[in-house]
Amino acid sequence: MKILLLGMNHRSAPIELRERLAVGEPGPALAKLVACDEIAEAVLLSTCNRIEVVAVTREPESARQRLRTFFRRDLAGELAGPGGPLQDEHLYEHVDADAMRHVMRVAASLDSMVLGEPQILGQAKEAWAAALECGACGPILGRLFQHAFGAAKRVRNETRLAERPISMARVGVDLAKQIFETFEDKQALLIGAGEMVEIALRSLRGEGLAAIRVANRTPERASQLAVRYGASAHGLDELPALLSGADVVLTSIGGDGPVLTREAVSAALRGRPHRPLLVIDLGVPRNAEPAIDELDNVYRYDVDDLGAAASENAGLRQAERARAEAIVAEEQQRFDGWFAALRAVPTIQHLRARMESLRAREVERALSRGQFSAVQREAVESLSRSLVNKVLHAPVSRLRREAGREEAMAYLEAARELFALDEPEDGPPPEEQDSGE
Amino acid sequence: MAIPLLQTAAALYLVAGLAAGLGLALPSRRALRGAPYLLLAGVVLHSVSVVALHRDGTAPPLTDLPVAVSVMAWFGASFSLLLLSRARLAALAVLVGPLAFLSTFYAALRLPEASPVAAAATGAWPHAHVMLASSGLGLLGVAGLAGVLFLAEHRRLKGRRPLAPRVPLPTLEALDRVNAASLALGFPLLTLGVLTGMMWLRTERGSAFTGSAHELWCLVAWAVYAVLALARFLGGQGSRQAAASAVGGFALLLFAAIGLRLVP
């Protein structure tokens, strides 16, 4: 059994390509993946910075090919689109220990564009929940993700990595402070109602803005958020009016086309030549047309730009990185131990089954030779079970303990050989063999 | 006494500019916080030197170029100090300090060569002209310097190279407000300076316009500023264009009011 991870992130692929491959609803894609014989379990993580599939397989080579085909055909499509064709160098691959470590580093935000940003943990939890819901996540990935969430929690509690909580939204707020002298007379417009928007609302709430408005396709969802943060809720149909009053627009909403077009922003800016507009586009695919950069008073930043803006804080967090990496390594070793022990499970199960069968057969033969009361029969059964358990205790414990080590395979082979596990069970009875000797 | 004071004031302006520059470059903001105080010390010494210069009544007239340049620097530095106290603008001292230094240092170098004339002998119009025109020039100079910073900041932000939050550069909004306030105050002062200059000419030579290059270029510069003020306050001109206009306008005004007179 192998754990295989294939994916792309902000370092390996440009934003245009990531936008094209982003998966809004992972359920159908996962169902398709686990329907293949070579993939036993799978979790798909799709955020603005990464698209990754982690899978459990008994046939690593076939699974690798299957996942590559999934990225090439199912996600990228046969034809080249924005960002160019999907190349081999856009994808990275990790196996077993590396894959485990990668999943944990991602959840602990050690692989994020903004080191220590908090929302990746929520996104990883959503990906895991989605895989559970569609039945793609089994016991191995379930356990891996539990360890990953544990590692993330420890990193958060035991290091200062998140002491200066920098999220994309928070970086955007800091950026606004380089444009606006005061927020007292400013209005913020947040488009979307997802986690990014909620984090932005949390960041903006303490800045003393004159008004915060939340606009979403589903106004009810916007309303739920708005009520919690003292903002007002609106539908997307009100966008033109909302835009003309906004000073900061933060957008993170799904959908095919851009929500902020050049024309819409240009129209909103008419009559306000000295009020700059900061557009923070956290959507993937991007929600704001890059053409709005041509407008004089508009400053647009997308997820890639904000990553650069966060470099200073990331630098400060680098000092804490080593401690966080050590925690991840610890958690990875714990999971790896459990995962390696899984390799011994089939042999142990086989051994127990063989011994149980032998015990049952011998007890039956012994008891058939005379008349025994129920109490006597029960005593013989109990004695035989106890003997088998005691005989097996030492080898089974040793097999479990050694399963995580390099020499595990030698132990497993020795066990199979010594107990003749690979030979058919219905051979000559051990009693006859012994007498022969 | 007046000249050493003026030289010290010039040095303080320069140090204020350097301190602001260091404050932007170094992690500690102490130097940046000190820049406005150094500028204030420069303005105070500058004021004392002007008083000392005119105490005996035989100082060069205000119409003398070094004196006019010194007055312009004093107005510019004083106005900047007012702005610095109101917004996160300490970094403006990076440009104001060196420009005030150059002007004051030039005045301190050239003043000993100027021939002292009793101030009363020159009349009221020349004094009014120099005071109003120099104050207008000083304020429009601040608008121009704010424009330079605005354009640099605009370029940086448009290029999506945001600085880390700890670098305390002025915000675009503050720079735009400095631009607007400087133009709103500086242009009327410049207008009054031009009018009093014409009155001075009419009193002295019988005509408000004698056709000299200085008069001609000053009128052109004034007309340009009139268009800029209209565009900014009534025409809906954007912040970036306003900043670029302030830079260009100040360069033209500097050439008309001072540059032409430096050319032999």
The radius of gyration of chain A is 29 Å
Integer-rounded radius of gyration of chain B: 19 Å
Strand content of chain B: under 5%
Number of strands of chain A: 10
Count of separate structural domains of chain A? 3
User: What form of chain B results from the Cα inertia axes?
Assistant: flat
Distance between the termini of chain B: 30 Å
Instruction: Spell the H/E element sequence of chain B.
Output: HHHHHHHH
The pLDDT mean of chain A sits at 86
What percent of the residues of chain B sit in helical stretches (DSSP H or I)? Answer: over 70%
The CATH class label of the largest domain in chain A is Alpha Beta
Please state the oligomeric state of the protein chains shown.
heterodimer
- What topology, given as strand order, has the largest sheet of chain A? 7-6-5-8-9-10
**Helix segment count of chain B?**
8
Do you know the CATH topology of the largest domain in chain A?
A: Beta Polymerase, domain 2
Contiguous uncertain segments of 5+ residues of chain B: none
| CATH arch. level architecture of the largest domain in chain A | 2-Layer Sandwich
Structure description:
The complex is a heterodimer of chains A (437) and B (264). Chain A contains 16 helices and ten strands. Chain A folds into three domains: 2-164 and 316-337, 2-Layer Sandwich (Beta Polymerase, domain 2), CATH 3.30.460.30; 168-309, NAD(P)-binding Rossmann-like Domain (Rossmann fold), CATH 3.40.50; 344-430, no CATH class. Chain A is α/β, with parallel strands linked by helices and 437 residues long. In chain A, the strands form two sheets. A six-stranded parallel β-sheet of chain A has the order 7-6-5-8-9-10, with helices on both faces. Chain A has a four-stranded antiparallel β-sheet with strand order 2-3-1-4, sandwiched between helices. In chain A, helix 7 (168-176) packs across helix 8. In chain A, strand 2 and strand 3 (50-57) form a beta hairpin. Chain B has 264 residues and is mostly helical. Chain B folds into two domains: 1-121; 123-264. The mean pLDDT of chain B is 85. The interface between A and B is medium-sized, with 24 and 27 residues.
